Amino acid sequence: MVKICCIGAGYVGGPTMAVIAFKCPTVEVAVVDISVPRITAWNSDKLPIYEPGLDEVVKKCRGKNLFFSNETEKHVAAADVVFVSVNTPTKTSGLGAGKAADLTYWESAARMIADVSKSSKIVVEKSTVPVKTAEAIEKILTHNSKGIKFQVLSNPEFLSEGTAITDLFNPDRVLIGGREETPGGLKAIQTLKDVYAHWVPHERIICTNLWSAELSKLAANAFLAQRISSVNSISALCEATGANVSQVSSAVGKDSRIGQKFLNASVGFGGSCFQKDILNLVYICECNGLPEVANYWRQVIKINDYQKSRFVNRIVSSMFNTVSGKKIGILGFSFKKDTGDTRETPAIDVCRGLLSDKAQLIIYDPQVPEAQMIKDLSTPKFDWDQPSQNIHIAEDAVKQSVKVVHDAYEAAKDAHAICILTEWDEFKSLDYQKIYNNMPKPAYMFDGRNVADVAKLRQIGFIVYSIGKPLDP
Ligand code: NAD
């Protein structure tokens, strides 16, 4: 029986390992983490992350061939294959601050693996890391290993939060980067291929050299984010000219070379990965003497920031140039539907923008707890572009101006405006007539996700702003 250990029981480590355990009954999987509350939650009925289908998969395997534990060293020592899926956030101080990946967690995991290993192991990069990280990891492992042999592979994860389980069950591709040419290299690659071959068709398992695999993950996220910034840049032009971004996206996407996916205009992309991975790419380009390439990718994030501030400005300017003392109902706080994850959610920037103009916010999200929202809004924001101008709203001030409620109607009641910031399905079928009846007039709708039926809302009486759509006559 192959023994797998995964260091890091987060949004990637938890679901990916649960699916490996589910699909490979002959493989034993231990997922370990330094966080006691996280592991306690993985072992409880209330998993630490919300992801459709995850509960069923975990419940089927937990205690059989899937284990969650804080005993990291014990499980690492016993494993044949060690996945490392720790966080790799953007550095906030020192060399590369605001751009480079912070590899502190990775380094300490690698040192621990070297320390506790008494048998040879395959170490798999599951986290997204800068290209060439494997070289540094190999150095840490070999210099601290007391003669034990390690093979480092890159196996970046392409799952998308909200659809993680279906993505893992049916991946577009599984990418494995390794060193075929070194002794044991081919065998290590084959061991990992054999794990995925339990359910992934042979032709979807792609093998490359280490650096291609590492860079492919950064490039894939950069391309995805670039599509969103491209359509968002066009949405601004639509608003200025009377074109409709949905019609433009549909016409553009019909070209089979372009395709329809990821062409929805919105208030901007969020999530823990896109911005951090592009900043990382920018930094790597700069370090490799490629400033023009760095500037090209930097612009993807600048457009995203511009889109969020454009949205806030539109709200304020539409409402007689001030939202001071006005109630604004916020529908949705997570960075996308079907996840409770709020990392880099555009809602943070939009809410902060409104709070800085002294609005009163009533927020509803079906998955994000109140404490998380208050924490997000009061945690100092690190401004990647201008680190000297970090933005901070004190927790007391946030608590005075923010009320968190448990349904959309409550959020909209007595509000001067409602603002959709996450595309949760339930927001499509709300009784907007009822909502309108309970709002002071004029009643505004600012749709940051293009989910509302603009014509119907206008018929009810709302003044509607929908990203990239013609404005009210
Ligand atoms: P996460 O913050 O949810 O999880 C990381 C976990 O690692 C945390 O629970 C943390 O406590 C744990 N950890 C850190 N250092 C540790 C150590 N030394 N020993 C044991 N545990 C340790 O992060 P995530 O969203 O799962 O992302 C993990 C990596 O995967 C990142 O590099 C990310 O860029 C990448 N990734 C994320 C996604 C996504 O959608 N979230 C998708 C693809 C790739």
TrEMBL record:
SUPFAM superfamilies: 6-phosphogluconate dehydrogenase C-terminal domain-like (SSF48179), NAD(P)-binding Rossmann-fold domains (SSF51735), UDP-glucose/GDP-mannose dehydrogenase C-terminal domain (SSF52413). The keyword Hydrolase does not apply. The active site is at residue 273. Residues 329-454 form the UDP-glucose/GDP-mannose dehydrogenase C-terminal domain. InterPro entries: 6-PGluconate_DH-like_C_sf, NAD(P)-bd_dom_sf, UDP-Glc/GDP-Man, UDP-Glc/GDP-Man_DH_C, UDP-Glc/GDP-Man_DH_C_sf, UDP-Glc/GDP-Man_DH_dimer, UDP-Glc/GDP-Man_DH_N, UDPglc_DH_euk. GO terms for cellular component: nucleus. Keywords: NAD, Oxidoreductase. Its EC number is 1.1.1.22. NAD(+) binds at residues 8-13, 33, 38, 86-90, 127-128, 161, 273-276, 343. GO terms for molecular function: NAD binding; UDP-glucose 6-dehydrogenase activity. Gene3D superfamilies: Cytochrome c1, transmembrane anchor, C-terminal, NAD(P)-binding Rossmann-like Domain. It catalyses: UDP-alpha-D-glucose + 2 NAD(+) + H2O = UDP-alpha-D-glucuronate + 2 NADH + 3 H(+). Pathway: Nucleotide-sugar biosynthesis; UDP-alpha-D-glucuronate biosynthesis; UDP-alpha-D-glucuronate from UDP-alpha-D-glucose: step 1/1. Pfam families: UDPG_MGDP_dh, UDPG_MGDP_dh_C, UDPG_MGDP_dh_N. GO terms for biological process: glycosaminoglycan biosynthetic process; UDP-glucuronate biosynthetic process. Belongs to the UDP-glucose/GDP-mannose dehydrogenase family. This is UDP-glucose 6-dehydrogenase. It comes from Mikania micrantha (bitter vine).
